[in-house]
Specification:
Strand content of chain B: 25-35%
Low-confidence stretches of chain A: none
Strand order of the largest sheet of chain A: 7-6-5-8-9
Order of helices and strands of chain A: HEHEHEHEHEHEHEEHEHH
Strand order of the largest sheet of chain B: 2-3-1-4-5
Number of helices of chain B: 3
Distance between the termini of chain A: 12 Å
CATH class of the largest domain in chain B: Alpha Beta
Structural class of chain A: alpha/beta
Low-confidence stretches of chain B: none
Number of domains of chain A: 2
Number of strands of chain A: 9
Largest sheet of chain B: 5 strands, antiparallel
Helix content of chain B: 10-25%
Radius of gyration of chain B: 18 Å
CATH superfamily of the largest domain in chain B: Aspartate carbamoyltransferase regulatory subunit, N-terminal domain
Largest interface: A-B, 23 and 19 residues
Oligomer: heterodimer
Number of strands of chain B: 9
Mean pLDDT of chain A: 92
């Protein structure tokens, strides 16, 4: 049984396979009945718009159907049911489970109890492999992945998408430039692991220092929901912003990405610049998630 | 009966230090435990105040090999290799002596296992293994430390503080 839990579980060849398949699907080379008769279970214990809808959309485009939990409040979790039991039960209803959960490692646990494949759609500050794959897919539309310079800007401590992407990019010999508010730096364990694996990770105090040398600027919002209290959130809120002025003189082929939703870290005026790819990035969630569904169910 | 020169030296040393722990007829002696870790060793191998074994513990004993060491003697129980390997996390230089009829029947070192199950708590408060789910904590032992299989958290130091 194939689960997709963490980008760490995939080697470069497997990532390339998924991205190649997504490329074919993007070009509409797919069987609209490939997953006919299959049912996808969307178990989202945290809010989501893009991930949830794009999985449902991807499933429908392949001829399958989706069912989902209305809300955590309406589920048996409020009665004290464990996630393990919920997964065992839902395994009997569907052919694949897509799980989002606030606890790190929830998807790994789910894969131990499920009788069907599990796809991790984000577990706390942990992994979000489908986002990482679509991030890579978006970059690949503009340039080769190998050897590029990528700036990771924002909340790199709690931002799961940045962690997963950093790990994936290390497989392509990228150079990573990290820029984050004090206290929200890339976890030292992850940074040293990347360096030990041969990836160059360079910390910068200011985005201005490095923006002109970047091929990709990956911006993340500050994860307010991960902070222990409001005071510590407001200390760092609005401490960085990407503006048209900041992007003056950057490389022509620079792409600015953001996993969305954004708060105020990208000025809306940037949306009109050729560098802005975050809405396309979001749309690429469909072919990438179609490829993932075909990988586990096809 | 006259003993060997080595036994004579040992008797002389015991007499000088005072006999710290009496010999056991059958069971296991865990020697060369990192000083101060004897009680944690017992916790790791599942011997607590509620178990039935007769146990002797000596701490901060002078050791020519590691300076100071702890020793644990467990009467009438021979520990299996998979049980003792768990203690390698905190006492990598420990040696295990299986005693039968007052003699060392078998002597072995400890090897760090590749997977550590249910012994160490994940320090990440957001990890699913720290909830009421029906799972045990699980770490993969790597060159840099131990990685939680659930949340990928890496423990590279202070393992003792995280023993369950």
């Amino acid at each position: 049984m194939r689960h997709i839990i963490s980008i760490r579980d995939l080697n470069r060849h497997e990532i390339d396979e998924i991205l190649d398949q997504a490329q074919n699907l993007q070009a509409h080379h797919h069987d609209p009945n490939a997953l006919k008769g299959k049912l996808l279970g969307l178990l989202f214990f945290e809010p989501s718009t893009r991930t949830r809808m794009s999985f449902a959309s991807a499933m429908a485009r392949l001829g399958g159907q989706s069912i989902s939990m209305d809300s955590v409040e309406a589920s048996s979790m409020v009665k004290g049911e464990t996630l393990a039991d919920t997964i065992r039960v839902v395994s009997g209803y569907v052919d694949t489970i897509v799980l989002r959960h606030p606890k790190e490692g929830a998807a790994r646990l789910a894969s131990e109890f499920a009788q069907v494949p599990v796809i991790n759609a984000g577990d706390g500050a942990g992994q979000h492999p489908s986002q990482t794959l679509l991030d890579l897919f978006t970059i690949r539309q503009s340039m080769q992945l190998r050897g590029i310079h990528v700036g990771l800007l924002g909340d790199l401590r709690y931002g799961r998408t940045a962690h997963s992407l950093a790990h994936a990019l290390s497989l392509y010999q990228a150079t990573l430039h990290t820029i984050s508010p004090k206290g929200l730096e890339l976890p030292s364990g992850l940074a040293s692991e990347l360096r030990d694996g041969g990836t160059e990770v360079i910390e910068h105090d200011d985005i201005q220092e490095v923006v002109k040398d970047l091929d990709v600027l990956y911006v993340t919002r500050i994860q307010r929901e991960r902070f222990p209290d409001s005071a510590s959130y407001f200390k760092v809120a609005s401490s960085y912003k990407v503006t048209p002025e900041l992007l003056t003189g950057v490389r022509d082929h620079l792409v600015v990405l953001h996993p969305l939703p954004r708060v105020d870290e990208i000025d809306p005026r940037v949306d009109r610049l050729p560098y802005a790819r975050y809405f396309e990035q979001s749309a690429y969630g469909i072919p990438v998630r179609m490829a993932m569904l075909l990988r586990v169910m096809g | 009966m006259k003993g060997t020169a080595r036994e004579d030296r040992k008797r002389e040393k015991d007499a000088r230090q005072g006999l710290l722990i009496s010999p056991i007829e059958n069971g296991t002696v865990i020697d060369h435990i990192t000083a101060g870790e004897a009680l944690n060793v017992l916790r790791i191998i599942g011997i607590t105040g509620t178990t039935q074994e007769s146990i002797s513990v000596a701490t901060n004993v002078e050791s020519g090999k590691i300076g100071y060491k702890d020793i644990v003697k467990i009467k009438n129980r021979e520990l299996r290799k998979d049980e003792v390997d768990k203690i390698a996390l905190i006492a990598p230089k420990a040696s295990i002596n299986i005693i039968r009829d007052y003699k060392v029947w078998e002597k072995k070192g400890v090897e760090i296992p590749s997977e550590v199950l249910g012994i160490v708590r994940c320090p990440n408060p957001g990890c699913i293994s720290n909830t009421n789910e029906p799972i045990q904590s699980c770490f993969l032992v790597q060159a840099k430390g131990m990685r939680c299989v659930y949340c990928d958290w890496l423990i590279s130091k202070d393992i003792t503080n995280n023993i369950i």
